[in-house]
Structures are given as structure tokens and as C-alpha cells.
């Protein structure tokens, strides 16, 4: 609201007798000004002002207007526009018309709303012998602040993740109703944040969008908003819908299915890993010929270092649709294995450029291994966050008399730490930190000391 000042211009006295044009002089009219407050209601920054003088009598005499006419008339001086402020930011004159009262002699009183009294003097002095001046604002009604004319869309629902890859994920959501589109952000939406996806074709029901160019083994949070828009405005759904996902590691896990010692060709330590081609290469079109992947077996006397290449198979082409076990051997006559000593084996898969795309955890094997009793591989490993602890549970492994549990910060269980031993099928591990990803592995131990390792399982703390 703008606070304005009213200047009342009263026509206090005028002779009602018949007179000539010579009698109509500036001195024949008396003016007085009175101020009060008036609250103006405006709808725009520009107003059209009509300025005119009005000649009127009570019917007993005549008044002569500046043009020499003697009739009761309204003489319009002109129409012009007034901006709310001038170039220097000062408030300009804004006029409002209205009849205040009619005196006993039939003369009307008018007022001019103005921020500067000098503006009124400038107008009225021009026709001082008539006094009447009046202005008109285009629209005196209050323009209520209008809300957006665009409908707020409903928020997407059932936001889930599918087809998690190394550098991409598929996001699935349901939508009810209609909207201009859906935008997906990497954080809660702000004015400056650009969406990573703008989906402009949204159907009622299930929608799927692919997020690409992600970093392997990285946690992402995605925030999805529906929106409606026109040429000037965008309105988003009010509810924030989000989901968190971790992309697959750039190096796929090669689960160990079997290991041990065999006495063929002078004896060897052997290991078998389970291979799924789709875990190694996400794009099936790239999996077309032998040599796309090479499997290599490494052996060492130390768990942490000193690994040397013991076997290589560049000719195996795993089937895309079916998993298979790849067996590899480290022969004793090449590595001078000593009976009763423990050695460490691991398998890597490399692409044609020599990049590691798959790796097993380190398996310890005794040479020659006692094959009397080999336990079953632990399965059904479940990790549950419990305050600052992780509860680890698993199913019973056949021929196991005890279990060992290990923890590591890598999926290959490098530099793993032993959590403990137990004859039960559960264990808790506490105080490993926050905002970190930990990997746990359960080892089944038989009565003859043979061991089988579970696949590593991860959890975010």
C-alpha cells in the first residue's frame, strides 16, 4: 500500500449574478487547501490522468469559461500518463477523482491525490479563475495477489532401483495423473542445481529411466520431482522422493566354488571360480569372441604380497546367459611347494587391454591339503545394522565344526581382519565407523582344518 495525501480544493465563493466575460477573472475565485490521509490502492505502475475544469452554476446566473462559452459545460484539458516514479526514483503525481460534497449554491468540491502539493498548484494555477481540477485513475480496485495459475503436480511414487551396473542404474517409479515432466537431481532440489535427467514423456503407471556415466563402487542418492510448466513458470511436486544406491565395483567378484590339492602331473594346488560374463562386461555386444577376457591364477607364500602368475587361460569364453566354473592350477614342480606349508591363491579376470575386471578373494590352501573332510561353503550370509554394531548370521555349513568371520574395506577381502571364531551361526562386530562400506566373510572350518570361504557381503555403516 502507498500512503498518499489528499489536497482539497474548495470552490468557496463565486458570484451567481449575470456577468460578462470581462467579469470572469482569476481574482473572482477563492481557494483553500486542507490535507488529510488517504490509502491508495493501485494495480500497476502507470496511470492515465484526465485533467479538466468544470463550469457550473445554480441556474440563476452565468459563468464564462476560458473559451468564452456561457453554458454549463465540462471542458477537458487533456489526458496523459503518469509513471509511479520518475527517472531519479522520486514519486510522481497520481490523481484520483471523487465528489466530496455539493454546497447550498450547487458548487461541487473535488480533490486531487498527490505526493507533492506543488503539482496541484501547477495544475490549478493554470485555471485559477475556475479552480476545478480532477484526475482519474484507471482502476481503483485492489488487485489481489494471485497464486500460480499452474496446477501443482502429484509426486512420483514407488521409487526403486533396478539393473545396477558399474556405471549405470535404472530408476523405476509410478505416476498417477499428468505432468509436464519429471526431473531427477543428485541432491534435494535448489534454485541453482541442474537436474541430471529431465524426462519429458511421463506415462500414467510405471516409468523407467536410465542414469548413466556414473562412477563404479560409489554411493548415489537420486531425488525425483514431477513438474508442470508454461513459458514463464515451473511448479514442482511438493513431496521429496529419493532413493540411494551403490554402483557395482569396477572389479567384479569371482566367487570361489572349490579349491584344494590334486596329485596329477606331480601335484598341484587348484582353485575353481564361478564366472558370470554379465558381471564382467555390462554390454553384451562387447562379449563376442575368445580373448575378450583372460583368467589368471596367482600364488604366494604371503597373504598380503609376493604374488606371481601361476596359470593363464586366454581362450575361455564364458556363456553370456549361463554361469560356469573356471578351474585353474598351480603345479608343484614349477613353484617348489613344500608339504605341510600354507600357500595363498587368487584369480583375476582381465579384459583384452589388461585391465582387471574380476577378482576372487585370497584363498589359503595347504600343500598337500588333507582331503579327508572338506566343509561346505557357507551360504545365506546376512548383515544387519544394530546401532554401532553389525549382526552377522549365516546358515549351517555341512561338515563344519567351527566358523571364522573376517571384515575388510574391500570386496576382495584384502588386508582383512579377523572378527572372531565361533561354533554358532551368528556373530556381532561393533564400532567400525560411520559412512563407510564394510565387507564381511564367513569361513567354515572342518575337523581336519580344511576351510571354505563364503562370498563377501557388504553393508553401509
UniProtKB/TrEMBL annotation:
First and last residue of the signal peptide: 1-22
Domain Fibronectin type-III: from-to ranges: 155-250
> Domain of life here?
Bacteria
Q: Which InterPro entries match?
A: FN3_dom, FN3_sf, Ig-like_fold
Among SMART domains, the record links this protein to: FN3
Designated name of the protein: Fibronectin type III domain-containing protein
Instruction: Give the organism the record lists.
Output: Plebeiibacterium sediminum
Query: Which lineage is the organism of this entry classified under, starting from the top rank?
Result: Bacteria, Pseudomonadati, Bacteroidota, Bacteroidia, Marinilabiliales
- Alphabetic keyword roster: Signal
Keyword Magnesium in the entry? The reply is no
Amino acid at each position: 500500500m502507498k500512503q498518499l495525501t489528499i489536497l482539497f480544493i474548495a470552490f468557496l465563493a463565486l458570484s451567481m449574478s449575470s456577468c460578462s466575460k470581462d467579469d470572469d477573472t482569476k481574482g473572482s475565485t477563492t481557494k483553500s487547501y486542507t490535507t488529510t490521509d488517504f490509502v491508495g490502492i493501485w494495480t500497476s505502475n502507470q496511470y492515465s490522468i484526465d485533467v479538466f475544469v468544470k463550469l457550473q452554476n445554480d441556474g440563476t446566473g452565468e459563468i464564462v469559461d476560458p473559451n468564452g462559452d456561457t453554458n454549463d459545460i465540462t471542458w477537458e484539458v487533456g489526458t496523459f500518463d503518469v509513471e509511479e516514479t520518475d527517472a531519479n526514483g522520486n514519486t510522481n503525481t497520481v490523481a484520483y477523482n471523487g465528489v466530496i460534497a455539493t454546497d447550498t449554491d450547487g458548487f461541487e468540491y473535488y480533490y486531487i491525490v498527490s505526493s507533492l502539493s506543488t503539482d496541484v498548484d501547477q495544475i490549478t494555477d493554470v485555471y485559477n479563475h475556475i479552480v476545478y481540477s480532477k484526475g482519474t485513475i484507471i482502476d481503483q480496485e485492489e488487485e489481489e495477489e494471485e497464486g500460480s495459475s499452474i496446477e501443482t503436480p502429484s509426486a512420483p511414487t514407488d521409487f526403486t532401483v533396478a539393473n545396477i551396473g558399474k556405471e549405470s542404474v535404472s530408476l523405476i517409479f509410478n505416476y498417477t495423473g499428468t505432468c509436464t515432466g519429471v526431473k531427477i537431481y543428485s541432491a534435494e532440489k535448489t534454485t541453482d542445481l541442474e537436474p541430471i535427467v529431465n524426462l519429458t514423456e511421463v506415462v500414467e503407471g510405471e516409468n523407467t529411466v536410465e542414469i548413466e556415466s556414473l562412477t563404479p563402487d560409489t554411493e548415489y542418492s537420486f531425488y525425483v520431482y514431477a513438474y508442470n510448466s508454461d513459458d514463464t513458470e515451473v511448479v514442482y511436486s511438493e513431496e521429496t522422493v529419493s532413493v540411494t544406491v551403490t554402483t557395482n565395483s569396477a572389479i567384479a567378484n569371482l566367487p570361489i566354488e572349490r579349491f584344494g590339492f590334486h596329485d596329477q602331473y606331480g601335484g598341484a594346488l587348484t582353485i575353481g571360480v564361478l564366472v558370470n560374463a554379465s558381471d564382467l562386461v555390462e554390454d553384451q555386444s562387447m562379449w563376442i569372441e575368445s580373448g575378450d577376457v583372460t583368467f589368471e591364477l596367482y600364488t604366494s607364500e604371503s597373504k598380503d604380497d609376493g604374488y606371481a602368475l601361476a596359470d593363464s587361460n586366454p581362450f575361455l569364453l564364458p556363456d553370456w546367459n549361463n554361469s560356469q566354473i573356471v578351474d585353474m592350477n598351480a603345479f608343484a614342480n614349477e613353484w617348489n611347494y613344500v608339504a605341510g606349508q600354507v600357500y595363498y591363491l587368487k584369480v583375476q579376470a582381465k579384459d583384452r587391454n589388461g585391465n582387471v575386471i574380476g577378482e576372487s578373494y585370497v584363498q589359503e590352501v595347504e600343500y598337500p591339503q588333507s582331503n579327508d573332510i572338506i566343509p561346505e561353503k557357507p551360504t545365506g550370509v546376512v548383515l544387519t545394522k544394530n546401532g554401532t554394531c553389525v549382526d552377522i548370521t549365516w546358515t549351517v555349513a555341512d561338515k563344519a565344526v567351527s566358523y571364522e568371520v573376517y571384515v575388510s574395506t574391500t570386496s576382495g577381502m584384502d588386508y582383512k581382519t579377523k572378527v572372531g571364531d565361533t561354533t554358532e551361526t551368528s556373530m556381532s562386530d561393533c564400532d567400525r565407523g560411520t559412512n563407510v562400506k564394510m565387507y564381511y566373510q564367513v569361513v567354515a572350518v572342518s575337523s581336519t582344518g580344511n576351510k571354505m570361504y563364503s562370498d563377501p557381503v557388504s553393508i553401509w555403516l
